[in-house]
Specification:
With 194 residues, the chain is mainly α. It is 78% helix and 0% strand.
């Protein structure tokens, strides 16, 4: 970890490196502090506690995911490609960030049966971004009447791709399967009787 980074950034990087690969519960604060090379007081002054650190790490990660998705949408040439850009975006995103076993949001949610308000809000923000944007993009492809249902199906595809990665499937292979499944879902929505 570069000593040029601020103590705050080193803590966020350490949280991603450790908590999002080994699990939040399995990663003690002292291990994060050691990797970040900071004193406990630094963590508490910046984040309040471990949960505050995890919240900020998730928020930073969501911003980076959103950037990758936006870039993939910008490269798309049709409304259908823009709708499906979440999968190429996911593939490029996973290459550009600290490795995680799968999705830090889903992993933290699974580990946190009773999250505090800040953590609950951070976890919900990922789902909100996916659901809202997919619904908006789906309108241009299948129309407003079918957009919400298709968005939910594509959200399920997204989650399934992440689950396949957790099961050890290579990201490119999981994304390819997700693309095929998404195409089928879009075709089915387009072919629904009026």
């Amino acid at each position: 970890m570069s000593s040029q980074l601020s103590a705050r950034d080193r803590l966020l990087d350490a949280a991603e490196d450790l908590a999002f690969t080994q699990g939040v519960a399995a990663t003690p604060v002292d291990v994060i502090l050691k990797q970040a090379n900071v004193a406990p007081a630094t963590l508490y002054s910046h984040f309040g506690n471990k949960e505050g650190l995890i919240v900020q790490a998730l928020q930073r990660r969501l911003g980076r995911w959103d950037e990758s998705w936006q870039l993939a949408m910008n490269e798309a040439s049709t409304p259908r490609e823009r709708l499906m850009a979440f999968l190429p975006g996911l593939q490029s995103y996973r290459k550009s960030v600290t490795p995680a076993r799968w999705c830090p949001f889903l992993g933290v949610a699974a580990e946190s049966p009773h999250p505090g308000d800040g953590l609950q809000e951070a976890l919900a923000s990922d789902t909100h971004l996916l659901r809202t944007r997919l619904r908006e993009l789906a309108i241009a492809v299948v129309g407003p009447d079918s957009a919400a249902d298709l968005a939910e199906q594509l959200l399920l595809v997204h989650t399934g791709v992440l689950g396949m990665i957790l099961r050890g499937v290579a990201t490119k292979d999981a994304v390819a399967l997700g693309m095929k499944t998404s195409q089928q879902a879009i075709d089915a929505a387009l072919n629904q009787p009026e």
